[in-house]
Structure formats: C-alpha cells, structure tokens
Structures
1.
Amino acid sequence: MSKSQVTNPHAMFFEKVFSRTDVVSDLIRYYLPPKTVEKLNLSTIQPVNKSFVSNALKVIESDLLFNVMTKTGDPILIYLLLEHKSFVDRWVMLQLLAYIVKICEDQHEQNKQKRAETRKQNLEQNKPENEGVETEYLNPVIPVVLYHGKSHWNVKNDFFALFNKGRTYSKYLPNYKYELINTADFTDDDFKGGVILRVSLMAMKHFFMDDFDTKVPELLNLLADLIKQKDSEIGFLEVLLRYLSTNRNYDSNWLKTTFKKTFKDKGEKIMNTIADLWIERGEKIGEKIGIKKVVARQMSKKFNMGLNRITPRLNPLPSDAIMELGEHLLSMNTFEEAYQWINERKKMIKMTA
C-alpha cells in the first residue's frame, strides 16, 4: 500500500507486511475476539489505499484501513493503528476517535457523490430524480491498536475516563471500544498464524528488548524453513532484514554474520539479494556528513537550488532522518514540501527526546 511521507522504520515494516491480505487476515483471525471474527468473510478483505494519520504524527503512528464483508453480505471497515511511540499515550482514544470520524466523513462524501450521480442519470433518462436513491448508512469501523513498546499498556479502553466526572455526564459523551494487540502480552510460543505474521510480530516485540541478539537467529531460522518451501518469500526476508538493520545497538556486520550462519545452505541466490539490500540501505554511504552531502546534492539538482540554502536545513537532523528524506524526495515536487517535512521531523524529534 503506497503512502506518502512514511518516516519511521517501524512504520515502513508495518505497512509493507500488514498491507498483505494474507497476513492481515491471519492477524484478524487469531487476535480479534472470536465472536467478531466468526461474523466476517475474511476471503473478501481488501486494503483501502488511504491514511488518516497526519504527516506530523507519522513518526509515532501508522495506519492501515481494510474493507471486509460479513458472512451475511454487509460491508464493514477494520482500522489498524500501529503505536510505535516510546511511551504509552493515554490520549490514544481521542486520536482514534478523530481517525474514525475522518473515515466516516470519507464514506459520507463518497456516498454523496454516488447519490448525486444516480440522480443525474435519472434526470437524463427521464426517471424520478430519487429513484434508486436509498437511505444512506455508514459502514461500521472496528478500530484495532497494535502496540509493540516496552512500557506496560495501562490505558483504559474507556473514552469516559478522559473526562472529569465522565460517567456522570456519559449520556452527553461519545463512547466506543477498541481492540488491543500488545506484543508484550504474548510469549513467542503464543504467537499464532502463518510464519510471516509470527515472525513479524516477534520482530516488532523484541526490537526494543534486551534479548534482540538472541531472538534474531530464531526469527531467521523460522524464515529459513519457510523459504526452503517457498522461494517467493525472499521479498519478505529483505523487508525483515531492512527493519532489523535499523536497530542501532547492532551493526550491519553482526546481522550479516548471523544471517550467513542461518542461511549457509541456501546458496548464492539469497546472498546476492542481501548484498543488494545493504547497498540500498546505504551502508556504503558512511557517516552523517557523507549522507548529508548525498541528499543535499539530490535536493540541489531536483529543486535547482544552491547547496548553501539546503545544507543548513539538514544539519539538525540525525543520519537516519536524512536518509529517510532522501527516500521521499522522489514524491516531492517542490522545496517547500521538503522543507515542511524537515520542520515536522524536527518537531517530532523534540517531542520524543
């Protein structure tokens, strides 16, 4: 699922993996309440190519939206929000409510356009204007929060709790529930679903934990067994390694060595693919000054501007942010877009510092 302005390795991994219908179907099947799942026809699930998280919040949140039919033929929506903050935010319910409202407004606008088209066709065909125009209803939205931080999730699943004496005035307040998938609540043996889903959830869980170095070989072993049966999943291996390689506590040489030990019997095919991965990731670029020069030159050429105007803007950004900016340049048409991205990233770095 293509989105603009993805600015976090967790977001990139999440969107690459969970936009796959086979993976998200497994996630729903095994991690949502059985009474909800038994009503759904998961073979109908389809991603909606739209994000409702603002660019300013993409550093700490990412989202995916899916259409799915129930077994009785009714359409509903499943909204999956990834929380990759370093802390638990008690205001997540307020943020979720805003996203749900946006989704409903989007539905309403689409319905309005369809109704207008039907009325126009009726008039052109000399039919009654409102023929075939039925009462409009919105499709329900099931919100799901996926959290993989180290902090204990202690936020109440109760919108009233955000208000002073909220229950006293409950009839005047909106209320809803969300489903929580907290990776820390599961042991590795408890993760269910196909190999891709289990490896992904384990990778996200252990990314922030002290046992990262012992768990990576286990993840790669699981994946090696899958790839022996299905070489087409080499693409997922690249996505996984790109994600694991962003852990700053372990350098690329450690991950390469671990990878080679695990895949020593898979031959040159995978090794050549992974060699390309390291080049793509930018390991050969060097330290921040080298990265900054490369991205500054790209911007200078793209926007026809002098380096003296561009380089000072990049100075406060860490290396990973500069590399991410370089990845997003292709989708940017003006320097103002790039400058806005830089300013938003600076704000988020201050907020999470």
Note: DSSP finds 13 helices and five strands in the chain.
2.
Amino acid sequence: MSNQQPLPLGRRPTHRLYRVVGEGRSAIWTPIGAAWPNRDGMGFSVNCDMVPLNGRIVMRLITPREDAEVIGGQQ
C-alpha cells in the first residue's frame, strides 16, 4: 500500500523536489517529491514523499536530463 497522494487528473509535475546535503560538486541530491503550478498561476501544489530533518530542500524545473538521471538511478 502506498501513502502517496494521487496527482490531479491530467496534470504532470513541472518541478522536482530534492534534499541537498553539502555544497558544490560533493553535494548529495536525493529526490523527495514533486510540484506543479496551481491553475491560477499564483503558487504550487507540492507532494513530498519524505520531509528531511537536515540539509535543504531545492525545487528544480524538470528537464529531460533530470528525468533520465532519476529513471536510470544516477544522480
């Protein structure tokens, strides 16, 4: 059984959320969720699979390269 909430029908995330620990090239980026713009364009809906206790949360626009890295299991 999954605790994940379903996305609104027909809406795909436009941004991915990451937990980032460290700085520069040695930083570790872990995908933790997704976000997509609200219909009125005034904010985002956010779906987090986990909430980190340390590090920082970074929201990045999803690009084809990010999709390939996450699907391939490489960061």
Note: The mean pLDDT is 82.
